[in-house]
# Entry
Amino acid sequence: MDSDEVVVRRRVDGALELRVNGVFVMDDVETTSERRLAQVVLERGARDVLVGGLGLGFTVRALLEDANVRMVLVAELHPDVIAACTVDDSRLEVVIGDIRDLVAEQPPTFDAVLLDVDNGPDHLVHVANAAVYGDAFVAECARVLRPGGTLAVWSMADSPTLRSTLAAHFDDVEAESVPVRLQGRDEAYWILSARR
Ligand SMILES: C[S@@+](CC[C@H](N)C(=O)[O-])C[C@H]1O[C@@H](n2cnc3c(N)ncnc32)[C@H](O)[C@@H]1O
# Structure
């Protein structure tokens, strides 16, 4: 993943687009689900939030729009993605690296962990990200959360496997379907969440 070619570019239709190794990751046309990922934990009063994957910054912006949020700590694998980000807020810290390494260094002081690093456990762009949805890392996310804290995971599809992994370490597992409009079609992305 270190040798990935990352491009953040303005398309001819005016949209901002993120591509990795020539593969489309996201654009700024339909960002309902990225913002919803933040809202799921804001509705539960999250103040200190750990995020995996900066992307174009829609999840992070939605978190920082809430004045009650105290700190947003983000791991982003690609420096070029960070360089393209225009979010400027003293509560935000972005670290270059893998979310798994950042979580491993953290004390148990977070209200929420948000993961949006790939297309979900069954549609991986990076094979190495399989570990992000695995039992050991989900347990690590539970460790860094305060009691009552939430782990929320963006996915392009529901995943019974991820739901049962979450249920092994958390209570109140939920899978929320988020309606999105993609290239003229009505579709849905998913947010799987669970409470410690
Ligand atoms: C779909 S984008 C995130 C979108 C973001 N939620 C938003 O609102 O724009 C996924 C991001 O995760 C990053 N990424 C991929 N694997 C990662 C990992 N293991 N740790 C940290 N960042 C990762 C990618 O470089 C990319 O910027």
